[in-house]
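Hey all, sorry for the wall of text incoming. These are the four entities for the joint prediction.
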Amino acid sequence: MNQPAPELDRAVKEIADELRVRTDRGEVASYIPELAKVDPSAFALVVVDTAGNVAAAGDADTLFSIQSISKVFTLTLAIGKVGNRLWQRVGREPSGSPFNSIIQLEFEKGIPRNPFINAGAIAVTDVILSGHQPREALGEILRFVRFLADDSSIAIDKAVAASEQRTGFRNAALANYMKSFGVIENPVEHTLGVYFHHCAIAMTCRQLAMAGRYLAQFGSNPTTGLSVVHPERARRINALMLTCGHYDGSGEFAYRVGLPGKSGVGGGILAVAPGKASIAVWSPGLDASGNSRLGQIALEQLSKRLGWSIFGA
Amino acid sequence: MNQPAPELDRAVKEIADELRVRTDRGEVASYIPELAKVDPSAFALVVVDTAGNVAAAGDADTLFSIQSISKVFTLTLAIGKVGNRLWQRVGREPSGSPFNSIIQLEFEKGIPRNPFINAGAIAVTDVILSGHQPREALGEILRFVRFLADDSSIAIDKAVAASEQRTGFRNAALANYMKSFGVIENPVEHTLGVYFHHCAIAMTCRQLAMAGRYLAQFGSNPTTGLSVVHPERARRINALMLTCGHYDGSGEFAYRVGLPGKSGVGGGILAVAPGKASIAVWSPGLDASGNSRLGQIALEQLSKRLGWSIFGA
Amino acid sequence: MNQPAPELDRAVKEIADELRVRTDRGEVASYIPELAKVDPSAFALVVVDTAGNVAAAGDADTLFSIQSISKVFTLTLAIGKVGNRLWQRVGREPSGSPFNSIIQLEFEKGIPRNPFINAGAIAVTDVILSGHQPREALGEILRFVRFLADDSSIAIDKAVAASEQRTGFRNAALANYMKSFGVIENPVEHTLGVYFHHCAIAMTCRQLAMAGRYLAQFGSNPTTGLSVVHPERARRINALMLTCGHYDGSGEFAYRVGLPGKSGVGGGILAVAPGKASIAVWSPGLDASGNSRLGQIALEQLSKRLGWSIFGA
Amino acid sequence: MNQPAPELDRAVKEIADELRVRTDRGEVASYIPELAKVDPSAFALVVVDTAGNVAAAGDADTLFSIQSISKVFTLTLAIGKVGNRLWQRVGREPSGSPFNSIIQLEFEKGIPRNPFINAGAIAVTDVILSGHQPREALGEILRFVRFLADDSSIAIDKAVAASEQRTGFRNAALANYMKSFGVIENPVEHTLGVYFHHCAIAMTCRQLAMAGRYLAQFGSNPTTGLSVVHPERARRINALMLTCGHYDGSGEFAYRVGLPGKSGVGGGILAVAPGKASIAVWSPGLDASGNSRLGQIALEQLSKRLGWSIFGA
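and here's what came out:
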């Protein structure tokens, strides 16, 4: 069922070659200086298939801020800790609103719509934090991401975290709002501190594609053979990525690419071809919905070329 | 890749046997008398795989009102007529709101979020109507559904259509609202007339599963061999069904069932296992989101048992 | 307590003289051709005090479309018919939203916030209509306005009414929406027909100031000596005009002018200095909230000059 | 124009006598323990007319938490400091939403609708704070209230302030949200600290009625003869109190009482009969909109009995 490695290599290389020269790249996120100073022409595409083949092109070993992609890893960790009780604190429906809108919290008594909008990811972070000090919770998240990627060098970019913390007033509003409904259990500043730090994890496209393998392989880590999450839960995380992974552009991504995916404002996207491959792409320019413009095009081309859409070959 | 026919038969039969005796069926839609008088204990499940095998259980040959499931067929027809220009009149994002909410029309200048909420389906109907008399447009829709199901006996339940027309004030509000933004081109009463009538098409589960084959088979009608819609468009309709097919329960359906699907308040659901099968289920009791309660459970069990989830076996 | 007539005359004349030459007049309403073709330089100001003195300046005897000002008269008529039961169908709170927004109807189960937003005035019209044919209800409204103004020549501009009816899709949306909640009792097209026609009443500023006397004089008609409405109800209509009479500019009008008032998109405003005078002003250019720009300035100057603000001399 | 003192005395006494025995008092605010432990049967009514007569009944010298009534004094202070520039940071329109809703901040780019909803009062507090330390700003507010009431004993209830600060997550959400739009200039915790403390000022009904005299007397303090605020501004503050002073019950208060007023969840209301009197009432039980239930009834009776409604005798 996997593509022969040479064909995969060729697809990745040709798509990267074509996209690296395109100039319609969108705008780099600039709300904090650390994100604004990234090279807008950077581009990387890495595919790791379930046979272990790795196809990489572009700046595959350059670190970037994974931002909201970390929400996939914290969701996985939180489900592992509390199981389905998690869904008492966060919903599973697409939000139909810009990514950090506070409106629906008003209608839905402080319960965020899903774990991939900011409010939902803050609630998930609060679940991981419970019973721990912020430093411990952060350590646990980081160890988990290193385990998934099988790479102990992965670290948090402290300058990014500090900058988010200084300017993250909307997230502070969301957290305080949820706290007023009792949805956040820990002190708001603790929960936000852990949240800002895990969004500031820096990874390369190669590391990110490695970290996503468990979603392509029914929940298990191929290097260690260990189960990361129950296969049914891996499927369900994929379903959430498909319906909610790209803010208000989630329907468009499903429509065009046909793969579960999660984007971050650092310009990265982690996508999954279930049973086939884990895919990471990075291009810092964003579209109006906050998703990497070239990243989405790369994934659309890859999915089409290899027949990987989950909606039909 | 298909299941052997005996295994499929057994799965369909066993699931139907288990579900027919369950009593937690939800409430039958009662907003018009014609829907309220359906037998709440009715249940049917039909699977047609891409090899042409048909597995049926329960009241597979009893007619019911397909209601919103007709939106899949009108969407397919409208895309065939105007192609991607359709997306100037309707969006492709999940709505994140109850199924006939008018709020987001206010924010988004009269453009409905997607073709499967009522407002969106009315806009799609308006596209089909353009240049025709209501009677002609309705004839075209009905001929198209008969062609898909390969069954010329399919008809509209006029009592249901008349009843909807007498009581459909929310839909009239939506249509007038869109008209005020110029999104509806035809006289409101014409567009609504066609809309109410195509929602009143009556079909059996067997007919419905037959009609859905083109979505499982890359856009072509296996009986005739004719292309219904370009394979890429079939994929994209599947993507829309997955993200938007169950009103405010779309995320939940994707999470639990893992298949594209579209429900109607008559209690039917049409689901698609791309490349594998078209599936129709019917049980009139609805959950709080307006989707068949047992229908969803049947699909969850079928998907799990046969490993058909698009998010991983 | 009244101003001596010569002082009143001078104030009206001087304010009119100053304003007639101003060029910052705003835009004339253009959503129907009949309103768009009015002379933008028209200006009139008429004050009728409770002693019966009349001070008039400008185009005081030119007819214009009173539009939403008619809502004051239909509210008075409806209260007379059903008393406080009216408040089961419409609220008394400012709306905090643009004048024909449909959003709050969704939150508040189809009950409009107050009788002066379009939805509320349609609900009030429905109350007047109940038990009558549209033609009879319209006759009753027209007779009531003629009685208030003591002028049997007042009539409906049928071209305006017909034009509103052809293009009033937002109002049709509002009416259908309320009907879906059971707030409208009559057939939607009947209620809308009466509504569009009473908004199309044509009056001169002089007639309008005469018609408003009962609000300045504790509910009685000075010509006939007859009670139009109980004094307490006249006070309460004044309170509603102050809090809700200028769409989303009601707070601004209270803040600057300090008098109860009701504006119409035809450029007229009826204002009340309780116990002192009824005031009508007309200038067709509107501000962003849909209120006559020069009309508001004229009233601000008049209120200040004569010490008529209800919030302190 | 003032009532003879004996008549005023009698009215105040009789209204108090009637209301003190009523049992339909509503619920005492309980979101912080300090407010919940107040005696629910407390009742006080004090009127100070512009001739200096004082009529008092009930627990007129018992301290209570003025809560949102402090917003009138901070608004007056802020207008004195920055004049009309204040309106760049806060609007003047009624909000049409529950008192601490965050939704409209989303629509209106972080600008609160008016100075009397929580968000608006926080923005006004931020204006007063600018260029000062929180302690200095708080001192300035307290000195101003003591000056208005001519009573140097007025103080802040520190237990109330501390409790608000510990539990005020919704207000923290509002402040952070406005900060994200740049509407709050100072550190959020500074602005909130000052806000929570000025809401915790404790006053008696007698002190409160004295403090409100400048609004009844065209902006001047009758004891000192000093101008507190320009007469025009006093009028305008009255207008804001009328349209926005009672959260989502402002229209109802204008309709029934016909006087500018501002309520607090401690059960107090400060009302103004322009040119006639300053009125304070206190009864801790609240209605669904958060306004003192008996307090409103007392004011309705007083206004009716003395013919003080600004909408007509």
